[in-house]
Amino acid sequence: MDLSYGEELEGYRGEVAKFLEDNWPLQGDEAKLDWNEQAVKFRQRAIDAGYLCRNIPKQYGGSEQEPDVLKAQIIREEFGRTRAPMEPRGIGTMMLVPTLLERGNEWQKEKFVPPTIRGDVAWCQGYSEPGSGSDLASLKTRGELVNGEWVINGQKIWTSGATSADYMFVLVRTEPEASKHAGISYLLMDMKQPGIEVRPLRQMTGGADFCEVFFTDAKTPEDWIVGKRGEGWLVSRTTLKHERNSIGSTQQTRALFAGLVQLAKDRKIDGKPAIEDPSIRQRLAALEGYVKAHQYAGYRTLTKDAKGEDPGMITMMNKIISTNIGHDIARLAIDLLGEDGLLDAGGTSMAAMMSGGHERWISHYMYSLGIAVAGGTANIQRNVIGERGLGLPRDAAAERSSK
Amino acid sequence: MNFDLSEEQEMLQETVRQFLENECPPTTLREIFDGDTGFEPSLWKGLVEMGVAGLHLPEEHGGAGLEILDLAVVAEVLGYMAAPGPFLGHALAGLALAEGGSEEQKKKWLPRLATGDALGTVAIGEADGGWLPHQWSVAGGEALTGTKKNVLFGEHADLVVVGTAGGGLSLVERDAPGLEWKPTEGADRTRRLCELTLSKTPAEALPQGETAAARLRDVALVLLAADAFGGSSRLVEMSVEYAKTREQFGVTIGHFQALKHQLANMAVEVEPSRGLYWYAAHALDHVQDEAERTAAVAKAHITDRYMQIARDAVEAHGGIGFTWECDVQIWFKRAMFDRAFLGNPAMHRERAAQMAGW
Fold this sequence. Notes:
The structure holds 2 protein chains of 2 kinds.
Chain A: H1 6-23, H2 35-48, H3 69-82, H4 91-103, H5 106-118, E1 123-126, E2 142-146, E3 149-160, E4 167-173, E5 184-190, E6 196-201, E7 210-221, E8 225-226, H6 232-236, H7 248-266, E9 268-269, E10 272-273, H8 278-307, H9 314-337, H10 350-354, H11 359-373, H12 378-389, H13 396-401
Parallel strand pairs in A: 1-4
Antiparallel strand pairs in A: 2-3, 3-7, 4-5, 5-8, 6-7, 9-10
Helix pairs in contact in A: 1-3, 4-5, 7-8, 7-9, 8-9, 9-11, 9-12
Chain B: H1 7-23, H2 26-34, H3 41-49, H4 68-81, H5 87-100, H6 103-115, E1 120-123, E2 143-152, E3 159-164, E4 168-173, E5 179-184, E6 193-202, E7 204-205, H7 209-245, E8 247-248, E9 251-252, H8 257-270, H9 273-286, H10 288-316, H11 328-340, H12 345-355
Parallel strand pairs in B: 1-3
Antiparallel strand pairs in B: 2-6, 3-4, 4-7, 5-6, 8-9
Helix pairs in contact in B: 1-4, 4-7, 4-9, 5-6, 5-7, 7-8, 7-9, 7-10, 7-11, 8-10, 9-10, 10-11, 10-12
């Protein structure tokens, strides 16, 4: 057991640090550009140096490096330390690019991958519908091939970033006669067109991060399909080969916990720092047990990935563990806020959560619920753990419906 | 970066598990659990022959010279199998001597403890939750007088390491005058306890007793955490197995989401704890400034999980889970032991809070 990275990897860390010292922040006239433009310039240099877009082939604008989870972790640590931009965040780089690389046509990869990883274009994901949440494959949005193009009618919901996205990757029913899963195709479409109407949904926090998207004869070219007709379900579930970031969420959790401890030191109960209150100390210390367990589980996963071994069930649990800890932190934070817990979040978006004031804890109190629901509710995660992790049989209704 | 067990450690776990599977199958386990002494000499002898008794003792005194992590991975397997016997007290007695004994004391006792020729135990508990060195009240010296509680397999021990006032340690031998044992009716019948009364009983202090006592405390906490991880993993497996075989409404009950989610929650509580006990054990040999606190966090967290998992496991088994004949009760009682022995989670959380400067 050895928690150091060893001589060779520390040497690599030195190279990354040297690169960052020479290249970030930008200098001279370049430093006057706005942050996004600076990020695009810097990213290209980091790609050329082999530090970003490591799993993307050179022909599509990536740096095409040998997969190495430990190097990837060192890059994240060094870039994080110097606040240098990494790959653009978002569903495009996280979901679409890997799917295209695995399943897309040559022209699709050439057209879409480079601008997406540079951050020139943004994507949104058209999966959920009002009647199709956990049972996603029951989706009803129709796609019909008419005169060489797809004509799309229906509605998507919970679409994050739809107002600003250039494109959507969307699941639509193109084979109404086929069975449930076999009737779905995976299409790409331009968001800037008359047949698409985007309506932001106001969340309980007051902000609007996601939207409803309505299609009325929206159109996309015949060959903007990934995989064949009726293969959309499979395409959407492409297992992605990547350098799993196994300790990213544990680091966020630790930072959140450190913030909570600070909050307990700052707030007062009966005129004394809240952290001196026995029940607060117990709750903090109990929470820390979960935070630390999550942290070391992350190191173990990192090690297993580096060795090419299967880390096991833990990889299915990360979301629910982060969610559970997030709930507990939120509950304790709102108690620490005392009468300030009566206040509104004070901001209307994620930005409030990132701010330094106490309102971020109120925002977190609500957002922790959004995180519990987004990308599959905690109960869906429990099904996955139960069925794929523990080997329990599928729910009878789900089993019947998938036939 | 290699946060994983070595091949040797995995092999050690596998060897111990295989041995216990063969020599202590459920029928044997239940016999020992229901028996008078909870002590099966052949089982202990077998473990000793695998080197379990001296893993952590210095090579020059007949031990294997390995680390606390090696000892902890064995504790995990013993917890997984609910192995009855004196491992915990014996391992701690050897540790105390190795860390705090004079050369003469080490020479006299360690080789015998390493080979299992002599059985050791520790008398650290006192009344009113006086588990920790700073709470001990029995005055040290050439003769000891007082009462120690919850001594593991005391009646079988050849050597007792007694915690004394001021946080020191003394050795008391089996046949010393004024030494009296009274069995305690403990719930966990795989780890039997007694009360030890000392009346002017001759004793020999360990020269480095205070340092050794602090380490004994931390190692004990980690071994309990490891045992709790092993035990709670086993309870999840047993509950999942039951859900896959028990049928109601024409299907196995594992089909039902209510139970499936409960089992998933149990797994989510247990699985991440593995790394926590590993790190706590690793820190004891390699990360001095985090060792004491991490041991406290690990013991509080994992033994608390174990107790809750044990309650969940009873529920998951339904009526049968509440019976004496169902093996779940054996692990349930080990969970009670791991949680209460050396102080409950709240006590160690408060210690962790203090050590963090909160």
